[in-house]
TrEMBL record:
Localization in the cell: Secreted, Cell wall; Secreted, Extracellular space, Apoplast
Official protein name in the record: Xyloglucan endotransglucosylase/hydrolase
Keywords: Apoplast, Cell wall, Cell wall biogenesis/degradation, Disulfide bond, Glycosidase, Hydrolase, Secreted, Transferase
Function: Catalyzes xyloglucan endohydrolysis (XEH) and/or endotransglycosylation (XET). Cleaves and religates xyloglucan polymers, an essential constituent of the primary cell wall, and thereby participates in cell wall construction of growing tissues.
Family under the similarity heading: Belongs to the glycosyl hydrolase 16 family.
Protein origin, superkingdom: Eukaryota
Domain GH16 residues, every copy: 10-221
Species annotation: Datura stramonium (Jimsonweed)
Its EC number(s): 2.4.1.207
Gene3D superfamilies, alphabetized: 2.60.120.200
Species classification: Eukaryota, Viridiplantae, Streptophyta, Embryophyta, Tracheophyta
Keyword Amino-acid biosynthesis appears in the UniProt entry: no
Top-level class of the enzyme under EC nomenclature: transferase
InterPro entries in the cross-refs: Beta-glucanase-like, Beta-glucanase/XTH, ConA-like_dom_sf, XET_C, XTH
Metal-binding among keywords: no
């Protein structure tokens, strides 16, 4: 159903889905993150419950979680920069490249800025065990204007599957099966949020670089949820859940092992109406598709 028509075209209302974000407590930014880089371009507000992450001509900037997590539910509510944002990249992702530089895991949301009159693009990707030579990108147009308000971007990662969700609507599911097991992310990761200059590739393969006449590019973040098994300094893994007294892995229960029928409906809607690129359909790039693309 079309609910708004604007200069960017129709904005669509997604199907009703379970709100997984309601299962966990929301945290402030300063409870959860440390400065990753570009500290002068990070501005805390509302007593640390939110933060502005800024790109300007001097630097990009980023935050990194205070803990490393093995499996979990990770959310950030983001409001993106408006106007001419070509070449700008806002990333919300999991990575352990600092610990495993040649064998790292990564799970990515990358929001790619746009040239005039074009919308932001949402790209998802993942690597496991250093499998960076095979890109597993999928790209989507959003069904809302991400510059007008905050929207939830969520990564669910457990032994059963990885699910990317936007406002609780699943847009991509990577099932942990035999075909993908060798490259399935398997080591504790940090959660990172950055804004940076991706002029060389982000907007139409680098056709439109960042125009700093429109700077600063300000991304505002709040609505933090970080629930998972935390890697301790002695390398042990401690599973706890802030929102209850349970000591169980918070994302290994029945509601997180597989998508419900309602969530499957949302996933189908998002992929049919809004996905415009999948590596599994890119036969020009891959003469032989990665094995998970053809697994039954």
């Amino acid at each position: 159903m079309i609910v708004v028509v604007s200069c960017r075209g129709p904005l669509y209302k997604p199907p009703e889905v379970e709100k997984l974000t309601d299962h966990f407590s929301r945290l402030s930014v300063n409870q959860s993150y440390n400065v990753f880089y570009g500290g002068s371009n990070i501005h805390m507000s509302n007593n640390g419950s939110s933060a502005e992450i800024i790109l300007d001509k001097s630097s990009g900037s980023g935050l990194i979680s205070k803990d490393k997590y093995y499996y979990g539910f990770f959310n950030a509510a983001l409001k993106l920069p408006a106007h001419f944002t070509s070449g700008v990249v806002v990333a919300f992702y999991l990575s352990n490249s600092d610990v495993f530089p040649h064998n790292h895991d990564e799970i990515d949301f990358e929001l790619l800025g746009h040239e005039k009159r074009r919308d932001w693009v949402l790209q998802t990707n993942l690597y496991g065990n250093g499998s960076v030579h095979t890109g597993r990108e999928e790209k989507f147009y959003l069904w809302f204007d991400p510059t007008l308000d905050f929207h939830d971007y969520t990564i669910l990662w457990n032994n059963h599957h990885i699910v990317f969700l936007v406002d609780n609507v699943p847009i991509r599911e990577v099932v942990h099966n035999t075909a993908i097991s060798s490259v399935y992310p398997s080591k504790p990761m940090s959660i990172i949020v950055t804004t940076w200059d991706g002029s060389e590739w982000a907007t139409h393969g680098g056709k439109y670089p960042v125009n700093y006449n429109y700077a600063p590019f300000v991304t505002t973040m709040k609505g933090i949820e970080l629930e998972g098994c935390i890697k301790q300094q002695n390398s042990s893994i401690s599973c706890s859940r802030r929102s209850t007294s349970s000591s169980l892995d918070p994302v290994d229960g029945e509601g997180f092992m597989k998508l419900s029928q309602q969530q499957m409906t949302g996933l189908d809607w998002a992929r049919r109406k809004h996905m415009f690129y999948s590596y599994c359909q890119d036969v020009k790039r891959y003469k032989v598709l990665p094995p998970e693309c053809t697994a039954s």
